[in-house]
Amino acid sequence: MSLMRIFGREHPVRTLRDELDRLFGDFFEESSMEGKGSLARWAPRADVKEDEKAFYLKADLPGMKKEDIDISVENNQLVVTGERSFSKEEKKEDYHFVERSYGKFYRAFTLPGSVDVDNIKATYQDGVLEVELPKKEEVKPKKVSIK
Question: Given 22, 41, 62, 90, which residue has the most CB atoms within 10 angstroms?
């Protein structure tokens, strides 16, 4: 998913592809992790908003520990990965059905050039991951003298 969508520049075919990936990913319960060598079982839902100082990402990750969540910046993308395990105690139970998602997940958000990647901050509380992506200070026009 792209943070560029905020600016209305998201390509409609990519948006459709993202929705189809989510739909069929849920249906088949497996999707590639873009060459990471393992399978993604689910994708947490996320919201992105913006103000004059930063972009803000909130992702629902209930039932996880912060130690099980990784955030990195790779190839101009904010990458959020992790794994929610199905506990051994729960495996012993006789469930009629299981609707909650377990396993590995991978989400990547393309960053606009205005993000200050050196000052990204993240917190995790009550099952919600919050990431603040501050904007770089605008470069002021500079007059160049001719000699």
Answer: 41
